[in-house]
Amino acid sequence: MTDTAHYQALGVPKTASADDIKRAYRKMARKYHPDVNPDAEADAKFKAAGAAYEVLSDPEKRAAYDLYGADWDQPRPDPSQDPNWQGGAAFDERDINPEMFRAFFGDRFGGGAAQPDQHARVEIALEDALAGAKRKLSYQTPQMDNAGHVTLKTRTIDLNIPKGIAPGQQLRLRGQGTGGADLLIEVTFAPHPIYRIEGRDLYVTLPVTPWEAALGGKIKMPTPSGAVDLTIPENARQGQKLRLRGRGLPGTKKGDLYAVLQIVNPPKLSAKTRELYQELANEQGFNPRANLGV
Amino acid sequence: MKKATPRDHRTDVVETLSLSELTMFCDTNAEWVVTLVEYGVVTPVTRATPEWEFTATHIARARKAARLMRDLGLNVAGVALVLDLIEERDALARKLATVGLAI
């Protein structure tokens, strides 16, 4: 059975040299490290590259993988009896003792079974932070069984998201980490279709017509707790920020909500609108390009 | 002492962590954190060594630094530069988002 998934994960041909594989892995690791690359797929690509490198960087594992594909690490009765076997030591992952596990995985998993999980992170929606929520969190942690075998075990815990939590804040879960240690979980926010989140403040881009911007007055704007009236000053500018105090993330230090004005023309000008604009054009002596020398 | 049950989850929002707590959660030692402080990667609330406390922003930066150094083989100067550039990039991405553009 041939399997090239590991080669594909690193973007190298099956004939790649050990140096090519190392170079490709380092490049992938840099590009797709989840702390560097915010894309949703980056984490999976980073992990796939890591898993591939784990196998392909070791000549014996690579030989077994080339021969058996994804099942390379399954125990076999006697590999030397296999007509395809080209030599090399028989390898059974279940023979790995924790020390060997540490040696293999030390670089990427932070040193073995007794580590607190550093990658625990939870992405929540803005609504979760506004009202508080319960979420299930799954994470992988290395675990040793009675016979001393180490496997990655997926754990799921119930997580209470407290109201008013802000991006980058940490939740401390008592006794939920490896070996009864505390678990520290970083909270990140999923992008929201209406609001941008910066610290405890929220930003909303608020489209206004040219005449609304010129005349000022009350317009409707969304807030997390429902629509409110916003008073626009007369002759408002494109990109002008208007603050609604305390309408951001809740909590003892309430965040603010900012409306950022964006002047938008109607998709089509009616004959009447055109006529009125023409009248305006005839009246106005304002040249916005004066400092461009034209 | 109260016996903890699997359902008994206590969740706290972390305001600050002490130096020893931070080293535990970064799986590292105090010396490493001192180096991060010397390079300005993280800054404690107070400068008096025994009472170093780190706020959420700095906890996140320290853990990110630990992961990047481990996964990409960076040194402290390298990780300091990377974290600053990532922050600049994210700030630019937010600015672009205010005019309706994505990077």
Describe this entry's structure for a reader:
The complex is a heterodimer of chains A (294) and B (103). Chain A has 294 residues and is of the alpha+beta class. Chain A folds into 3 domains: 5-95, DnaJ domain (Helix Hairpins), CATH 1.10.287; 121-189, Urease metallochaperone UreE, N-terminal domain (HSP40/DNAj peptide-binding domain, Sandwich), CATH 2.60.260.20; 195-268, Sandwich (HSP40/DNAj peptide-binding domain), CATH 2.60.260. Helix content of chain A is 28%, strand content 24%. Chain A has helices spanning 5-10, 18-32, 42-56, 59-68, 98-109, 126-131, 210-215, 271-283, and strands at residues 121-124, 133-144, 150-161, 170-173, 183-189, 195-198, 201-208, 217-221, 228-232, 241-244, 257-263. In chain A, helix 2 (18-32) runs antiparallel to helix 3 (42-56). Chain A is elongated, with a radius of gyration of 29 Å. With 103 residues, chain B is mainly alpha-helical. Chain B has one domain: Multidrug-efflux Transporter Regulator, Chain: A, Domain 2 (Orthogonal Bundle). Chain B contains 4 helices and 3 strands. Chain B has helices spanning 19-25, 30-38, 56-72, 76-98; strands at 11-13, 16-18, 53-55. In chain B, helix 3 (56-72) crosses helix 4 (76-98). The model of chain B is unreliable at 1-8 (pLDDT under 50). Chains A and B meet through helix 2, strand 3 and strand 4 of A and strand 1, helix 3 and helix 4 of B. Strand 4 of chain A pairs antiparallel with strand 1 of chain B.
Secondary structure topology:
The complex is a heterodimer of chains A (294) and B (103).
Chain A: H1 5-10, H2 18-32, H3 42-56, H4 59-68, H5 98-109, E1 121-124, H6 126-131, E2 133-144, E3 150-161, E4 170-173, E5 183-189, E6 195-198, E7 201-208, H7 210-215, E8 217-221, E9 228-232, E10 241-244, E11 257-263, H8 271-283
Parallel strand pairs in A: 1-5, 7-11
Antiparallel strand pairs in A: 2-3, 4-5, 6-7, 8-9, 10-11
Helix pairs in contact in A: 2-3
Chain B: E1 11-13, E2 16-18, H1 19-25, H2 30-38, E3 53-55, H3 56-72, H4 76-98
Antiparallel strand pairs in B: 2-3
Helix pairs in contact in B: 3-4
